[in-house]
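hey so i finally got around to running the thing on that chain from the lab meeting. sorry it took forever, my laptop kept dying and i had to restart like 3 times. anyway pasting the input first so we r on the same page abt which one it is
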Amino acid sequence: MCGIFGIVYEKENPAMGAVLVKAGQRLTYRGYDSVGCGVFHEDGSTELRKDTGKIEDVDRRYSLSSLSGVRGVMQLRWATFGLPDQRNAQPHYDCDKNMIGAHNGNIVNTSQLQEKYRAEGHTVRSDNDGEMVVHAIEKHYDKGLPFEQAVIEAARELEGDYACVIGDIYTNRLFTVKMGSSLFLGVGEGFICCSSDLPSILDLTRQIVVINDGEFIEFSATSYTIRDIRDGHVIERASELSPLSPENADKGEFPHFMLKEIHEQPKKAADLLHFLEASREVDEFVNAIHKARRVFLVASGTSYHACLQGAYYFGKLAQLPVCVAIAGQFIDLFGDTVGPDDVLVCVSQSGETKDLINVVNYCKRKQVGRILGIVNVLGSSLMIRSEVHLPLVSDLEMSVPATKTFMNQIVMFLYLAAKLAQKRGLPGLNTAALTADLPRYIKETLTKAETPCRDLAEQLHAVEDLYCLGYGLCHPIAMEAALKIKEVVYSHCEGMYSSEFKHGPLSIVTEGYPILFLGTREDSGMLISHINEVTCRNGKAIAISPASPEIRKNASQMLELPEVPYYMVPMAATVVIQLLAYFMSVRRGIDPDFPRNISKTLTVD
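ok and heres what got predicted. didnt touch it at all, straight out
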């Protein structure tokens, strides 16, 4: 949530505003409700323009793109502290308008700091926690401390997880701080920039400096210095060439990122499987799970559904019972029981999910639980905090709803379960065959399912309430289907295990009430029983499964999946539910890339 970007040039750049706006557009997938740009001119003057609304609208109203400057700071804000209005939009000035700064994350002691700073004579203009960052640094800088020491002292007053970028009128430099939220530095020809995320940097340079938590950087147009936030000692770290390219952040021939990323899934699954086949970290990952007293799979949202899928794979293939836990619930439910011999497999596409980072920090404080990470964003907080991590190899995912990262998460779990089964001497999948066959099955599903999904979306797009029920191996995909429909269609859709439907929710069924059923052919007996509980009450049962004359005969309607092996049915079903949600969303006139009220990277509790 939120996004910050800062850049320093060697001299006044008349295109500064255009650079800031484009960087902001690259960060819009994170979610936002207001936009702001602040610039420093060579003559020491400043300008700050900000307001609520989409970046294109704010640009049109305030001519953000026309700004020039030698340094610039921009921010997209997703409201947490303070209403989404102009005064709470970021960046913020200090009292004398000599500093401009913005942040990403949460300063949890904001109300106490507001009271404190007002009592000390500060001019506090908003209810926003980002302003507290600026005043905290200003307070110590005005006492005569060097700027870098003021940053260190300010960090001792600010509680929470955040990243920030700030500068003053006196020197041609910016400071950026990472204290729990994502942050990267980009080193270019004649400029250096920082950002919450890589998309806004890759347009400008692929030379990236990964910043660790508890570090801050002072940078000019030509040099940077990394320091430890605790004592200011200098840390040497060179930039590295990012394997990602600006093209990863373009839609190409597709109308939306969501559809583009759905179609990228065969290639990304292949990339992941080839990586896992060659990776030495896989054995370390599997060994840790094999030796653990207990294994917890911990995540939030879509990643939680992937963990649930992983539990099925570990149970069926490797005969290993695992506990699946929602990250925000883990500490209260399991925190007091975790011991040093337990393993936590923590899963997050962004690597910055606050609920999950809370769990990691809790376990590290108590010195319990080995942390294994599955993450898409390299250099993220989860990756850095994990003893061993495996990347999802999905490249940038721009659409807010997760598609290719979810697919690679469940592919990852299938592969790991197969490897664990091998280690335990159990019969199971051959991982080389999996690597050869699975991407082809995903591609075949895309080809076969697009037209039927479009037709089904035409039937369902106006429906305001429906259920998605899954049995056995397809239960987690039903959960994910319901989430996707809620996210991008704005219809209420409940996902659950199909045998649970008769225990209460069956009362909702009326004539024509639509219910999606997901299952494998091997589970057709139970699926047919649950379908008939609906159809005998005149509900509309829409089955999504591999070809089965029995299921087709009993369902009101059927969307057939391609012929795929049993353990790969969830991947084929995933493609179908993603396409269905996408086409329903577009049919309703909704932009599926930017669903209202939600964000790609959830950095708040």
